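Task: encode each sequence below as structure tokens.

Item 1
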Amino acid sequence: MTTPRWDAAAAGPIWPAGPPAGVDPIRAAVRGCLAAEVGRDLTAAESGGGRLDIGAIGTTAAHAVASPMLARAIADAGLVLGAARHVADPAALAADPGWRLAVVLSPWKQAVAVQLTALSPAAVTTGVVDTVLRGPRGLLGVNTNSWAAQVVLELLAAGREPGRIVLLGAGASARSVALGLRRAWPGTELVISARADAAAQELAAAAGALAVPAAELTGLLDGQAPAILINSTTWGETRESETAPFAFSFDDLLAPGGAFFDLNNRLSDLQARALRAGCTVSSGTLMQRATHACRAALARETLTLEDA
């Protein structure tokens, strides 16, 4: 069976004419996520409240449930943060009745789906779940990362359609980014490069992209840096991760006027090099804030439905 290409069913950009002056990007991401993933209007979903207990799985789950960005998003949604816990794996998460909202992190974003009752549209498309809601119909897996990434990418593009985007990595985060990118710009040239060539090939086939081995990347570009370079790998996540070199010259992918989107929240060497090259740089912080805001709004919607 042929996998439908994501660029053939794109929903369109969040801001067709570019981000307007004074825009709230977090609110825009939440609006798009609620409408597409659960069929709810943001205004209608802004009522409600209650206590929200949180669960989490993944390598950095303990850090995630203690995040001040998550706590702020929950408070902004009019909810009260209750207990927060992290468990070992997807099976333990599904068996634990003590949470209403669950944060799913690497390495479980693709494996958790088999434990769930249903998946939202973006989760079905990507095969990636980063958020689980416990509601009256069971456990719903949602992909919020694609909406959070899309709003960052559209801000970086500033109303222009990028000629070429290079995406480093082909894991769960890369899949979410690629879907957000394709919703915004179905026709933009997308190049995917990753250490796992088979994963890059599979993602490229789904996203209407070109998969290029890392050692061949700079040769393919032939001195023409992409309009937007995206790092979805763990390179830069910690200081130790920066000791292993890429299989290509990273600086050859940078040029004045370009943009670099690093999904890592930490101020990495890659971000510093991109700034020195004259690029507009976004760390993963705005994406993380938008993701948490989407999670909180979805949780508020679930609690509102239960109270109805």
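Item 2
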Amino acid sequence: MKASKVERQQVLDYFAAQLGDDPVVHLEKVAVERVGSVLHDIWDVHCKDSRWWAINNSLNCYSQEDFKSRDVALTFHVGLMVRIASREEVPITEDAAGLLPQAWRLWEQAVESLDGGREAEDFQAVGVRLREAMVTYAGEVADEALLPEGDVAPKAADVVGWTNLLIAHLAHGASNKQLRSYANKLTRETWDYVNWLTHAKNAIAYDAHIGVAAVSHFLSIVTALRLRVTAGTKIRCESCGSYHVVSGACMRCGWHSPDYVPPPSRRLSEEDLASRLAEPCVPSSDISTFRSPDDFR
């Protein structure tokens, strides 16, 4: 079958990253199969010491020792991709999720309970767990320091009240008006939806999936707001406006900040210098690898 140079190169790059010590000697696109709305290209790939089926969307390889038939390989591939796509995971980094650890843990429990859901009561139970996750979140962010002077603190389980105070603290000022409006509306709508799901006697699986996605998005937005503040104000180039400023110099246009002061360099003592020089080192001529980080993508 016809294959473009770009398609061939994608497969070659994939095998170079996955099987660097077993180079490709021949590859051929042998079929294109449609499963639902998704097209899958199937490649017959000959390496020096092995032979593989390569199937895209998403690109993966299967040994022809294990999968004699390309149809069997495709069936396995489609099933694997569906299972991967159906997984619900915390959508932010582990460090970021650590800002609201208890809320994310309860969210994950709601996801786990959804996997075995069959009846309306099961999907209502997902709503209960999501509601618990949001109430727990309120407890994690509640802080009297957020209260304007003279105001009474919201109740412990007042998700909307505590979130509105947190948003006002994290996104204050006229320039953040739209952000505050969006976050406040998101909080109210997410909280109302979860409460509706908890009591929905005719709830179906999609209703629970929407609830899981809504609470995930809500927790992600609150986390992003907190990270946005801790990141501080980024330096911008006064010439082109780029944020890509390193050591007072713009990496796009070459502008240099007249106010940049380099941090003091650390000077090694004579003892530290002697200690480091006494340790064995590897001369650069002994480093023979030609692989770059891009080869491992």
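Check on item 2: DSSP finds nine helices and six strands in the chain. The CA atoms of residues 98 and 219 lie 12 Å apart.
End of task.
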